[in-house]
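Onboarding guide, step 5: your first structure request.
Type a short instruction followed by the sequence, for example:

Predict the 3D structure of this protein.
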Amino acid sequence: MGQVVILVTGNTMRQVVILVTGITMDQVVILVTGNTMLQVVILVTGNTMDQVVILVTGSTMGQVVILVTGNTMRQVVILVTGSTMRQVVILVTGNTMDQVVIIVTGSTMGQVVILVTGSTMGQVVILVTGSTMGQVVILVTGSTMGQVVILVTGSTMGQVVILVTGSTMGQVVILVTGSTMGQVVILVTGSTMGQVVILVTGSTMGQVVILVTRSTMGQVVILVTGSTMGQVVILVTGSTMGQVVILVTRSTMGQVVILVTGSTMGQVVILVTGSTMGQVVILVTRSTMGQVVILVTGSTMGQVVILVTGSTMGQVVILVTRSTMGQVVILVTRSTMGQVVILVTRSTKIKYFS
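The system replies with structure tokens like these:
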């Protein structure tokens, strides 16, 4: 299948069961939106999947159960956003996974349970953000894991329990630069900073993770350059930012994931350029923004997924230009918008869903 898009919308649903099975799928996108849902069950099984994107948004949900099982998966992205949720259960099991990204955001959540089990995993990134949470339980078990990054941020939390068990694990929080690196984790935190510049260069890197969190910043510039990289993850979170510029340039990349979240931002510019890219995922979520500009240019790309969600935005401009692409999916959802401009130009005709 070239693309599978499932939309389920309604005011009241007793039960929603979605089954997607196949040997080879390029992309699976599941959108479930509704005011009141008693139970949502999503089953995605397959031998080989390039990408699985699951979006579950709603004001009140009784229970959300997501099961993603498969032998080989390139990427699994699960987004669960809502103001009030009774329970969220996410099960991700598989023999070999390149990356698993789970994002759960909401103002009030009763319970969040995330289970990630597998024999070999390249990376597990779990982001749980919310103002008030009753209980957060994260279980990550496996025999061999390269990296486990768990971020739990919130003003008030009743209980946070993090269990990480395995025969071989390590934790590295260090600034490391060199020609060959297995893992790079950079943490920069401060209350007030005028300018932050982070340069990470290397010929061969297995994984690069950059976390930049602060309350007030004048400017943030992140440059990540390298000839061959397996994965690049950039997380920039802050309440007030004047300008955020992220430049990621390289010749060959397996995957690029850029997450930029904040309540108020003057301008956000994301530039991703490269000759060959397997997948580009850009997530930009915030409540109020003056302008959002996303530029993605490259000669050959397998897939581009851009998700932009927010309550109030002045202007959203998305420019995607390249010569040959397998698929472009742009999802823009919000309540009030001044203007939305989407420009998609290419020489080879592909499928386009919005």
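Each response can be followed by summary notes, for example: Residues 159-182, 346-354 have pLDDT under 50 and may be disordered.
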